[in-house]
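so i finally got all the pieces together for this one. its two components total, 837 residues if u count the protein bits. some of the lines might not be protein, just check the labels. i wanna see the whole assembly predicted at once instead of chain by chain like last time, that was a mess tbh
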Amino acid sequence: MKPYVKLQRITKRFPGVLALDNVDFDVLPGEIHALLGENGAGKTVLTNILSGRYQLDEGELSIKGNKVNALKWSARDALEQGIGMIYQDFMLVEEHTVLENIALADLSIPFFPDYEKIYNTITELGIKYQLEIDPNAKIWQLSVGEKQRVEIIKALMHETKVLIMDEPTAVLTPQESDDLFKIVKKLAMEGTSIIFISHKLPEVFSICDRITVLRKGKHIGTVNVTDTNEKELAKMMVGREVFLKTNKAEYTPGPPVIELIGISALSDRKTPALNKLSITVNQGEIFGLAGVSGNGQKELAEVITGLRPSTDGKMVINGKDISENTPRKAIREGVGHIPDDRIGMGVVPDLGMPKSMVLKNYREERFSFKGIFLKNEAIINYTKKLIEKFNIKTSGIESPVKLLSGGNLQKVIIAREISESPSALVAVHPTQGLDVGATEFVRDSLEKQRIDGAAILLISEDLEELLAVSDRIGVIYEGEIVDVSLTKDTNIEALGLLMTGGKIAAV
Amino acid sequence: MLFALIAGSFVFWINGANPFEAYKEMFVGAFGDGYSLSETLVQTTPLLFTGLAVSLTLRTLLWNIGAEGQFFMGAMGATWAAQAFSNQPPWILIPLLMLSAVVAGALWGLPPAILKTRLQVNEILTTLLLNYVAIFYVNYLLYGPWKDPRYPGFPQTPRYPDAALLHQYFNTRLSMGIIIGVILAIVLYVLYKKTGWGYKIQVIGQSRKTATYAGIRVNRNIVRVLMISGAIAGLGGMLQISGLQHKLRLGGISNNYGYTGIIIAFLANGNPLAVIFVALFMGALLVGGDSLQMTMGFGKGVVHMFEGMVLFFVLAGEAFKRYKIQWIKK
């Protein structure tokens, strides 16, 4: 069969990053083709090139065997060739009705859209594909699954030949996912090709025909579903590279510091994010938490640091029940937090370094008289001391911290969080986006804290990092801890399988 | 600024006057002699308070459009106290008036604060709408229960008891209000720069997320800030009556001081010391404009047009200050 779309030797660069490196990819008519890979592997970039949102730097593109000008491939070209994409965050106007949103999909939006015709088409498609939806409902009234249906209908209005779905099940309940799979299969049967981006191996196996695996922008392989198994795919996804073990002191855990018992919490969308989760982090250990993003890591970190209320369960820190947690209580109990969002949460972006350094302890006697008048001089001296100790490179102590490089910014946050000798430390993606030197610095800092007896929860998607620095590794999947094992008793394939919802028995 | 003056000249010119004459008249009218200087300061006083009130909320990235209403409520609160405790000596009565005005102003800042923190209702709308409530309520009082029975035709209260009036210095209309305002500006400056509270407010204004992360109780501080802001505007309202008008009467309370305060706070970039000077500039503009009406025979409309023009260009200039003009060769 001739591929409908064929991409050859695709290369795409972003400033400082090689997002795609000489990647080949093709889609046959009527197939469901899964695109697998870790975060940052290049899946989204690849599909965005296909849908014309990004322009490629090098490579060739052919549609139905005809070469097109790949460097000038635009979103409009893509639509005209029947390539549609459903983004993870839906592109819908919340205040408008389903009908109005779908009318927008018409490229030539007439001044007076023919609503009646569109209404009828929606009903027809609804019956044909079991995409039941009330065309007059407002988007904000719909559930996530229903919004997705609207996006699918929008795509079908263009006579889509290739439908790209970026992690469509990430936001769906299992029931909604099943419904979606039925629709997808029916579309494929009628000749539409589906590109299906996912992290979850079981669903890939249940619906897809072929699988392409990307890793760090490289094409690792394309295989038929029937010729492979979950274990092999997990290995392809996470790779099997040699990595440096940091020099670790012996593992001699102390008493528990962070104890969560049956904790539940809601996500920002008010859907369940943590599901009766229990976890214990002991003194003097680094507990690594592995998982594909969106499985509750963010919410877990926020519950422990008091930023997000838990709806159920019990939390004990240093033997003290703080189930009703607030950021203040967490700070008082000595819970340090290295947040994911460095600029937005970790520092005061437009102010100088001193104001970020004493963010949490400015009330103390050494920085203020009776907590009222700040001792500005003491604060500046303290900042200077930390700059020297952590070797932070800055153009000036009072220049806005947002101008610092990523590594130096992270040093500011780490300097603040560990200078107070925390009893517990929650580090979320602490090395993400940092270069090798800064990464090493961050890992060393965590290790030092561990030796000093802190309980460290390290949340990361980088399995190699987790294996290199953690004492124990837990896996979070759909808001639950599905496995905890000693680092020496686990390996990258097992973790890769567990975090994509596979069962350990399959290893 | 220059553009503002040029545009202003144009306004004068199409009205058949020599712009240079007009500017000279304005300057003389605002600063020319002891009397005009005192009048400028009289106009500056309420602007100082509303400007400071708005500048405080600006530091937390909130917009208090309600200084006008809080100013009215302060004036009303003071008037209530003046009537209720009319036989007290000045050293009790004046502080009572201030207290009453501060409380009234702060309470007027409370509903928007609660709506903002509990239900995320935009404070710009709520503070603005409460202005109308305040103004119409005062109207009601003046036409109804508080009307001076001796002058039934006029919507105004009886004159305050003497003990409730502030002394006016040097035979002018200037009272101690301006001094209180300047002191307040300095106090706020010290609060911002030197205290943990000022630091907290600054972090909240910079990034709510960072503030929450640092264990700062953001909502509680937002409520506080809006109430203190209301209190400052309210105090301005009290001083306006006690120090100048001597009775609550329609039209005499506020010359859009609350709204001008927004512009002042914006131009001063939230810096309370800068508020003093910007308020002075605005006060001079008002007085100078008045004197134009008298000396050059311009209509009121022309003067307002000029004032509006100046403000427009000053504000536009603020925006342009952030960019550099560059000529690109084709």
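The two ends of chain A are 35 Å apart (CA to CA).
The CA atoms of residues 41 and 216 of chain A lie 4 Å apart.
anyway lmk what u think
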